[in-house]
Amino acid sequence: MSTDPSLDKSFALLRETIDAVYHGVRDLPVTPTVTVPALRALVAQRIDLRHAHPLPALMQTVIDLLREHSLHITHPRYFGLFNPSVHPSGVMADALVALFNPQVAGWSHAPAANEMERLVLRHIVKSLGLEPDVTAAHFTSGGNEANHTAVIACLAWRYPEWGTSGVRACPRPPVIYLSEESHHSFIKVARATGLGTNALRHIPVDAQFRMIPARLAEQVGHDRAAGLEPLMVVATAGTTGTGAIDPLPRIAEIAERESLWLHVDAAWGGAAALSPALRPHLRGIERADSVTIDAHKWLSVPLGAGIAICRHHEAMHRAFGVDTGYVPPTEAGAEDLYKTSLQWSRRFMGLKLLFTFAELGAEGIAQQLEHQARMASRLREMLGNAGWEVSNETPFPLVCFTHSSLAADEVSTRQLVESVLKRGRAWVSPVRLPDSRWVVRACITSWRTNQDDLAILVDEMEFARRSVMV
Ligand SMILES: *Cc1c(COP(=O)(O)O)cnc(C)c1O
Prior knowledge:
Elements: H1 5-24, H2 36-46, H3 55-68, H4 88-100, H5 111-127, E1 136-140, H6 143-158, H7 162-165, E2 174-179, H8 185-192, E3 200-203, H9 213-225, E4 229-236, H10 248-257, E5 261-265, E6 290-294, E7 306-310, H11 313-320, H12 351-385, E8 388-390, E9 398-403, H13 410-423, E10 429-432, E11 438-443, H14 451-469
Parallel strand pairs: 2-3, 2-4, 4-5, 5-6
Antiparallel strand pairs: 1-7, 6-7, 8-9, 9-11, 10-11
Residues 82, 142-144, 147, 183, 185, 236, 240, 265, 267-268, 294, 306 line the site of pyridoxal-5'-phosphate (PLP).
């Protein structure tokens, strides 16, 4: 206990709120109903920055705003965009990180934090079948930064002059191959690296939305003949739209034959490496030059935890190495992350994942991942029994579906989804498939989703379908 009653009151409120949200989120509406002008006015009115506010009252205001006006992604019926429910340990981890505020950029400033992150990262690298002693890995803000990191590392590896001459170091225009269903972060990466989006080749997908390897090989041939330089292929292991896994072994073969850097974007699906039952679906990932995994997706830690992995340690040094006269020298046997990654000042992002791994143990993690996969299988069955048609096939927990009584077009699918969201009992989203059909997308993003939640979702879908049909 401190001698500051206001601080004591704030701590009590924090404790109470963690408890109330963790145990009570299921009873909140999933979706907020507020409008932009109304909320903007409310925030300005409640938080007047001209005055000092006592901390307990300010906290209560913020808690009320967040509770009333958030889309609750930690709700077990948020069947959403890969954003997870979190464990209380993840909340505690983030609080401890803020408290000690370790500067992880240099080993000498944060020895304990650096070594704990290293432990977690080596665990992930091993589970992917990569060799931890030669593989570089670090935390990133998310998948976007991890993909960006991979492309920079690849460029620095391929072109010795990249660091000094930029794109002028490339004798021929480089080309990056990825599927039509790959993540749009590569659009930003192409712009940010100076390659431009014309450097991207979106390879067609098969009926299950996976990259067609023959089309990849064909496109590489065309580009080479046209005087371009095939540089990298991105295989997605768990696409954002439908959870498709590109055929990694066949893509790896083509990459090897054509001397392409193989990047596997496993932002969401990479978590499967931690389940013996699901890991076989990632076969081939061990042949990657670089891999992206987001711990803030299927590994269920609070946002802000991507992971960039690269088997060529030297590429990371070439890409990001710098020497300063103001940072203390690197400790013997250690590595300073500001020299091997895009970030400089760096938050201790790995603690929340360490907590999850250590709290649940390897078996507990596997069970959690497999529970979500099982809930998705159950949802497919339940939807089928209720007359819905499942439109995708994936071992990962993402279900796309529609109904024969609905036109699978944009307007009616959006209408259907809107009518689900309006009632606030579940969150799903519309998605366009590569064949231009629009269907409903439901991802089991929460490890807390149970069969009752699935039953409510199916009821809500049925209710919405009837209401849009009349
Ligand atoms: C989410 C996602 C990304 C982007 O990751 P962020 O953490 O949102 O930056 C990249 N690729 C895939 C396949 C994703 O699912």
